[in-house]
Amino acid sequence: MWLINAHTWKLEEVWSEDVKDYAILSHRWQEEEVSFKDMQNTAMASQKQGFSKIKSSCDLALHNGYDYVWVDTCCINKESSAELSEAINSMFWWYQRAAVCYAYLSDVDSNVNGLSLEYQLQQSQWFTRGWTLQELLAPNDVVFYDCTWLPLGTKRTLSEVIQRRTRIHERALHGEPLETYSIAQRMSWASHRVTTRSEDIAYCLLGIFDVHMPMLYGERTKAFLRLEEEIIKQSDDHSIFAWPIDDREQTGLLADSPTTTFWEPWIFAD
Fold first, then answer.
1. How far is the C-alpha of 186 from the C-alpha of 206, rounded, in Å?
2. What is the pLDDT of residues 204-255, one digit of tens each?
3. Which of 4, 24, 47, 48 is most exposed by smallest CB count within 10 Å?
4. At 215, is the secondary structure helix, strand, or coil?
5. Which residues contact 2 (CB under 8 A, 6 or more apart)?
6. Which of 52, 35, 39 is closest to 8 using CA atoms?
7. 218: left (phi over 0), alpha (psi -120 to 50) or beta
8. Cα separation of 86 and 78, whole Å?
């Protein structure tokens, strides 16, 4: 695992049994994100637009008493398939292990007059991304920030708003174990989320279901089928089969995606 030293902005490699306390960033990828390779030269990296998020995260971490920060854009060597696979399989645990998660909402501005915070949160694209689901649920402490890094609240203080936006039960936002919820319920949380790569809609759910599997980019919808097969191996929860057959002419017992009308959350609400 690579962490950013918040004092020096340098990457340092640590092993899981020797992980230091660290803050972790959750955000949407945008233009000019800083890569692992870029971080080998921080002077050059600091010229990219995405570096401002790294710097702000480091400043917050130091203010909160943490010396290290993890950011997905630059703390994974994506040129190494082995390191990428390990990172994706470990990511839920990394977010869970973090002392605090800073959720940066680049499309929310608390200084805009006439738009309520709830309205802006309801419109934020952060809640539509596949990867941010585990980034919301895994950490114990999630603090939301707007585009100017003003604090908006935590996932506990904003839990009612978040529940209305995501249909995730408030108890889950307050730390109730995810295994308390059926497979269908957890799938419903991802039913309206999207990822840039089609395979990632499966890979981003590994931690939600506590399963592991190798990454095979290029397999497209087969990734989600493999995810379901891994879930079935360790669970006897038949709600995994509770998805509606529509006119897409899909065959078989397993769905090829959690999106569209699959596992609609109100069907399985308490």
1. 11
2. 999 999 999 999 999 998 999 999 999 999 999 888 887 766 655 566 778 7
3. 47
4. coil
5. 11, 12, 13, 14, 36, 70, 75, 76, 77
6. 39
7. left
8. 11
